[in-house]
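Example record

The entry below shows one chain as it appears in the dataset: sequence first, then structure tokens.
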Amino acid sequence: MAKVIKRDEKAVEFNKDKIKIAILKAMEEVGTVDTSLAEKISNEISNTQKQEINISEIENLVEDKLMASKLKNVARAYIRYRFKRQIERETYNSLDKEIQGLKDLTSEEVRNNANKAGDKLQTYRPMISDITCINYAKRHIVPEKILKHHQKEIYLHDFNYLDVPFFNCCLINWEDCFENGMVIGNAPIEKPKSISVAINILSQIVAHVSSNCYGGVTLINLTKGLSQYGLSSLNKLRKKANKWIVEEKRESYCWELLQEEIENSMQGLEYEVQTLTNARGEIPSTL
């Protein structure tokens, strides 16, 4: 009797009953059970002249013999079953390795996340959850054509949140919100008409976004994006200065008041974001 080389390269005694059972399961799935055919195929494969036979070779032989029979639907069911088992094996193997890596402090989740101390009891269990979510995302969420570039040309940040109905860090497209209007709570917000109003609305946006997410909130292009609102404020000041200030002092007067308006507004924004906390109780904002 031939020895069967398993996937872990261990050699075991050939057991034709396992082949028969796998074929019968495929038959049961499609509702066509032919015990004699299952017996016949398992006997034929067990009569191999090889001293050793790989488990994959056995599965290929079963597929070939089922496809050669009249029960093509059984063959397809067996192929599906084989593929499902392969996915399960890969899942458990990779997941086990990641959890072991967490214990050894070599896991990707430990090495690439500076926010979590993998050697602390209070973070160890949540990180096991993160590893499980990452494993699921790799199999079900991220397309293979993207996944193969992970940690090479690109890096998928916050992998552990891709498969949950919540989001982590948020890069707010605040410029589009300002330009096209938005709704905060139940209040429709129009495009700001001054730098002070624009900056005040930014603090409201950060407050609402951070209260509904886990990680950081980022506002980019502040200097460039806020320039038009600074100009709006400057033009308003110029209209007032034309009425009350002598001509030679108007422009310097307006710029001085604009600087004061910007400084006061930015101070308010800084205080606002530095006293905010996100859903996890952390300081969320990066300006």
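Notes for this example: The mean pLDDT is 83. Residues 181 and 190 are 5 Å apart (CA to CA).
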